[in-house]
Amino acid sequence: MTTITLHPDFRVGPVDRRVFGSFVEHLGRCVYTGIYEPGHTTADEHGFRRDVADLTKELGVTMLRYPGGNFVSNYTWEDGVGPVEARKPFLDLAWRTVEPNTVGTDEFLQYCEREGIEPMMAVNLGTRGIDAAVALLEYCNGEAGTRWADMRIANGREKPYGVKLWCLGNEMDGPWQIGHKDAHEYGKLAAATGRAMRQVDPSIELVACGSSSMMMETFGEWERTVLSYCYDVVDHISMHAYYEELDGDRASFLGSGTAMSTFIERVAASADAIGAQRRSDKEITISFDEWNVWYLVSRFPGEANLPVQRDAPRIIEDRYSGLDAVVVGDLIISLLAHADRVAVGCLAQLVNVIAPIMTEPGGAAWRQTTFHPFATAARLAQGEALQVQVDAPSFATAKHGDVPAVTAAATVDTATGALALFVTNRTAEERTVTLRHPGATARLDGGTAVLADHEGPREEQAAAEAYGMVDALPVEHGDGVITLRLAPESWTAFHGTLA
Ligand code: AHR
Question: Which of 99, 223, 244, 290 is catalytic?
C-alpha cells in the first residue's frame, strides 16, 4: 500500500527557478558545433545555432554556468575577449584540447542575454587567483572609467552585464583539477577572492566549491574547513554528483535520488554546524551546479588518457536510455523536495557532452531521452514546493541501503492553485497510490510519464527521437482521495489543482 499526503499549507519553500539551470563548458562539442557553429544552416548572425537555442528554450533552462568545469581552472579569460582575429589558441590542459578562443566571455554573455537566460560565471582559482577574478568581474559588471570596464567598452559592449552568480573555482577538492588545493589553501583563497570581488560589486552571489562527490575521501571535512574560512563571504556551497548504472545494478541506479537527498542533507548539516558555531543567523544554501547521469566509470577513459585534440573533438558524448530518463526525473524530485536549501541546479551539460541535446556538425539537433523529464518539470514546477508525505514500501540496494519504492515532490502556485505532482515508481511492478489531501480540495487533470526500458542507450538520432513522454495511467477521483496508477519503472508528472 502506498499513500501520498498533500496539503497546500505544508510547504518546503519557494522553488528557485535557477534550479532549472544547465551548464556550458569549453569541453568537447558543447560550445563548438554545440551552441555555436557559424555556417550552420540555422546559425544566427552571431554564429549561434538557432535549432539548439530553440531546444534550449523548450527544455526550459533558466540559467547557464560557464566556462567550466575543469576547463576554468586553467583558463585565461583575457585571451577570449577582443577582436576574434587577434585571439590565440591555447592548449586546455583539463581536456587536452586546443581551445581556439573564438567564443569567450562577451559572446557567451550576449548569447544568454538574447536568449533570456541568466548566466553563472566561474573564476579560475586553479592557475590564477584574486587578480584575474577581480579583473573579470570588473570587465563584466563595471561602469565606465576603470581599466577592465573600459576594455569591455572598447570591445563593443557599453552596458555592464550585471552577472549576479559567481563560482569561486571548480572542484578544487579533486586531485584531477589543475591547481588542486587542500581545504585550507582553497578556503583561504576563496575567502580572499570573494572579499575582493565584493569590493568591485557587493550585489553578487558567491559560490564556494564543496565536494566533487559524496564519495570523495575529504567529503565533510572539506565543507567544514572551507566554510570555516568563507562562511561570512559566500552565499552558497556547491555540490556535484553524477550517477550511473554499474555492473547491471539496476536497483542501486534507480535509488540514486535517495543518495542525492542524503548528500544534500549532509552538506546542509555541515554548513549549519559552522553557522551554529559562529552563532550566525545566515544560512548557506546549495548550488548543485553539476548533476546528471554520466557513465563516468563505465564509459569514460579518464582525462589523462585523452589524446591532444583540436577542432571540437567528441568527448563524453553519452547516449541515454529510458532508464536514464526515469533516474533524471527522480533526481529532479530530490532537488524539489529540498527547495528550502537548493537555490541553484545545473544539469551538466547542455549540448553533446552528457547532455539532453545532441547535434551533428552541419546537421540536425535532437532531444535525448533525459530531455523530457527536465523539460516537463521545468514547465510545471512553479511556486512553492510542498512537504509531501510518502508512505511506501522500500527495497534493498547494494549501494544505498533500503530505498523507498515510490518518491514524490509537489509544487503549488499559491496564486492560482495550480498543482504539479511528480512521482517515481522505482520498481518493476505497476503500483497503485492513494493520494490523500485532508482538509484541502485536489484534482488531477492528467499527466505524462517517461518509462524505463531494457533497450540500453539510444545511440542513433532516430532511436532517441522515437522516445518521448507517454500519457500517464488514468487517475480516479474518489471521496477525499485520488487513486493513481504508476507504470513500472516510471517517472510521472501530474497536473491539477490544490486549494
Ligand atoms: O561536467 C564534466 C566535468 O565533470 C566538469 O568539467 C567537472 O567539473 C566535473 O568533474
Answer: 290
